[in-house]
Design brief:
By secondary structure, the protein is mainly beta. It contains one helix and twelve strands, in the order αββββββββββββ. The strands form two sheets. Strands 1, 2, 3, 4, 5, 6, 7, 9, 10 and 12 form a ten-stranded antiparallel β-sheet that branches. A two-stranded antiparallel ribbon has the order 8-11. The longest helix is centred in the first third of the chain and has 21 residues. 22% of the residues are buried. Keywords: Signal.
Length: 237
């Protein structure tokens, strides 16, 4: 009897959800939300940053181990028309990348195991300006794509540090510029709008600060080192 009741409840819930999403007869939550000229919110999320290396010579690659970081920030949204919104999403993005060097980079030099590993910790204050392009609202959800540019300040940067890799300091630049592409879905709930989204970010500028020694095994073969990453954000408005 309990099993039958559970199946019945699940069927009712499933049919109700299906009706909300796809039926012509539906109840719209927050029906006037998109009529606001300005709206505000916040986001929480996860990130995974990487480095894209280009080299001076054909040698063994520097391997990048990405870790999962954390995002938090605010949202201001300006409605331009039914399908276009301009968004400013300042946030704090915390991450770490581990660089594993090949012993071949130290050919003819003395080294130990600690020389093959560099931990690159980054705390970005991120300032993206994004154009959001949405479809027509379908019952209580609305897909969209977005694109834009951003700048970031790396609070963990040690660009001005006079020490370099010769004493274990891998240095990165403080100021960064990116372009961003992403997509997501707005879900209109009873009290607020909830939006999961996925975004890729790609740096315009080189981030590495080279060592004093022009023949440094850590930086001499690096032509450019550019940040790239993926964000998964959960927005509440």
């Amino acid at each position: 009897m309990k099993k039958t009741l559970l199946i019945l409840v699940l069927l009712i819930v499933s049919q109700t959800a299906s009706a909300q999403l796809f039926s012509k007869e539906k109840i719209k939550n927050n029906e006037n939300f998109d009529k606001q000229r300005l709206s505000w919110g916040f986001f929480l999320g996860l990130n995974s940053y990487d480095f894209q290396f280009n080299y001076e010579q054909d040698m063994d690659d520097i391997l990048v181990e990405s870790t999962t970081g954390f995002n938090v920030g605010l949202i201001s949204d300006l409605r331009l028309n039914e399908h276009l919104n301009l968004r400013f999403e300042p946030g704090l993005f915390i991450t770490q990348r581990n660089l594993q060097y090949s012993p071949s980079a130290f050919q003819g030099l003395e080294y130990n195991s600690s020389d093959l590993l560099r931990e690159v910790k980054s705390t970005y204050v991120h300032f993206p300006l994004l154009l959001k392009v949405s479809t027509k609202r379908i019952n209580n959800f609305k897909p969209f794509v977005l694109a834009g540019v951003s700048t970031a300040i790396n609070l963990s940067s040690n660009e001005e540090n006079p020490d370099d890799n010769s004493v274990g300091q891998f240095r990165t630049k403080k100021n960064m510029a990116f372009y961003e592409l992403g997509f997501g879905i707005d879900f209109y709930l009873f009290w607020f709008k909830f939006t999961p989204s996925i975004r890729g970010v790609f740096a315009f500028n080189d981030e590495i600060v080279r060592d004093t020694d022009p023949n440094s095994p850590w930086t001499s073969n690096v032509h450019t080192m550019k940040t790239r990453g993926v964000f998964i954000n959960f927005t509440f408005q």
